[in-house]
Amino acid sequence: MRIKPLTNNSMNRKIFAILIGTVFTSSLFAQVKDEHLLKAISDFNSALIDANTEKLNALVMDELSYGHSSGVIESKQEFIEKIVSGKSDFVSIDITGQTGAIIANTAIVRHHLHARTNDNNTPGEVKLHILLVWQKNDGKWKLLARQAVRPK
Question: DSSP 3-state helix, strand, coil percentages of the chain (rounded to 5)?
Answer without folding.
Answer: 35, 45, 20
